C-alpha cells in the first residue's frame, strides 16, 4: 500500500545552529525549510515546530547524529525503527537516541515539536527509542524551549528549562508500548496481515494456513525473535491502535468491538494492564490535560496472558 510522503519543502520550520552547540554557548539562529532528514552535520535543528501533518502523512526513514525529543500536541505520532514501533498519542513525548534510523507516520492532524537534546543528558535517557507520559510541568518546559530563540542572553534560561526537563523525564512513566517487529519473512507475512486488520480474530493456525507456514513454526518464531507469544504481540498491537481511537474520541464499546475483544470488560482489563490506567481515565487526561492527575497512573507494563 502506497502512503503519502510529507513534502520536504513544507514539513518543518527548523532553527539551525552550528554542530556541537550546547545550552551554555548559544548563537543567533536562522530559519530554513526542510525535512527532518535534512538536519545533517551541516545544519542541525535545536528546536523546530512541524506540521500540521495530515492523517497518514509519512516522514521517510532517516537518522541524526544527535538525540532528540518529539512531542505531539495533537493527533498521534508513530515512530518506526528496525527494533520496533513506538506509539505516541497526544500528550506523550518520544525520545530517539542519536544515529537511530527511524521513520514516522501521523494519525489525525498532528502538530509536532522537536527538540535536540544536549549530549550531557544522554546518560539519563534510554539507549533505545522510548515514549514518556507528559506531565503539565514537562509540557510547559517543552513548549518554552520550543519558543526560545537561542541567543546568548537566554542561555541561563535554556539551562534552567533543560534541568526541569531532565527531572521531569526521569520521573515520568515510560510507556511499555514498544511493538517489536520481525525480520523473518515468514513471521512478517503474519504481522503484516494483523497490521492491516488488528481486529482479525484468526487463530495462529488460520494465519499460518493463509501464509503457508505451520502454527508450530510461527509460535517458535514469535518466541525466539520477538520474545513474546502470538497473543501477547496481537494484544499489544491492538492496544496501540486503541490509543489512537481514544485520542479520536471513540467510545470504549466501539473500540472493543472494532479491535476484536470479546467485550468491553476484556478490553479495559488489557488496556489497564499495559497502560497503567483505564481507557476512560486515559481519554479524560487527553481531553483535559490541565486537570490530569499523574497519580492516577500506576506502574504499567504488567504481563499479558
Automatic annotation (TrEMBL):
Alphabetized InterPro entries for the sequence: Cro/C1-type_HTH, Homeodomain-like_sf, HTH_AraC, RmlC_Cupin_sf
Any GO MF annotation of the entry: sequence-specific DNA binding
Keyword vocabulary terms for this entry: DNA-binding, Transcription, Transcription regulation
PROSITE patterns: HTH_ARAC_FAMILY_2
CDD domains assigned to the protein according to its UniProt record, in alphabetical order: cupin_NimR-like_N, HTH_XRE
Pfam families xref list: HTH_18
Ranges for domain HTH araC/xylS-type: 188-285
Gene3D superfamilies, per the entry: Homeodomain-like
Stated name of the protein: AraC-like DNA-binding protein
Amino acid at each position: 500500500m502506497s502512503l503519502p510522503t510529507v513534502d520536504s519543502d513544507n514539513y518543518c520550520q527548523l532553527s539551525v545552529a552550528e554542530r556541537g552547540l550546547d545550552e551554555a554557548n548559544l548563537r543567533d539562529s536562522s530559519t530554513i525549510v526542510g525535512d527532518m532528514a535534512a538536519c545533517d552535520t551541516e545544519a542541525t535543528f535545536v528546536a523546530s515546530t512541524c506540521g500540521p501533518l495530515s492523517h497518514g502523512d509519512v516522514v521517510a526513514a532517516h537518522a541524526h547524529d544527535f538525540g532528540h525529543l518529539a512531542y505531539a500536541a495533537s493527533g498521534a505520532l508513530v515512530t518506526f525503527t528496525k527494533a520496533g514501533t513506538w506509539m505516541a498519542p497526544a500528550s506523550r513525548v518520544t525520545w530517539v537516541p542519536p544515529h537511530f534510523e527511524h521513520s514516522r507516520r501521523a494519525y489525525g492532524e498532528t502538530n509536532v515539536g522537536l527538540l535536540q537534546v544536549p549530549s550531557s543528558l544522554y546518560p539519563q535517557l534510554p539507549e533505545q527509542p522510548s515514549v514518556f507520559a507528559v506531565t503539565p510541568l514537562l509540557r510547559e518546559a517543552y513548549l518554552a524551549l520550543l519558543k526560545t530563540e537561542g541567543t546568548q542572553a537566554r542561555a541561563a534560561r535554556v539551562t534552567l528549562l533543560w534541568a526541569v526537563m531532565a527531572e521531569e523525564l526521569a520521573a515520568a512513566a515510560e510507556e511499555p508500548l514498544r511493538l517489536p517487529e520481525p525480520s523473518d519473512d515468514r513471521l512478517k507475512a503474519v504481522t503484516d496481515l494483523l497490521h492491516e486488520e488488528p481486529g482479525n480474530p484468526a487463530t495462529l493456525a488460520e494465519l499460518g494456513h493463509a501464509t503457508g507456514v505451520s502454527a508450530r513454526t510461527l509460535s517458535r518464531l514469535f518466541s525466539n525473535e520477538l520474545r513474546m507469544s502470538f497473543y501477547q504481540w496481537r494484544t499489544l498491537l491492538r492496544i496501540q491502535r486503541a490509543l489512537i481511537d481514544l485520542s479520536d474520541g471513540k467510545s470504549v464499546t466501539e473500540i472493543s468491538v472494532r479491535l476484536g475483544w470479546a467485550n468491553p470488560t476484556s478490553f479495559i482489563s488489557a488496556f489497564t494492564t499495559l497502560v497503567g490506567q483505564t481507557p476512560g481515565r486515559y481519554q479524560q487526561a487527553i481531553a483535559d490535560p490541565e486537570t490530569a492527575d499523574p497519580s492516577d497512573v500506576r506502574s504499567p507494563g504488567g504481563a499479558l496472558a
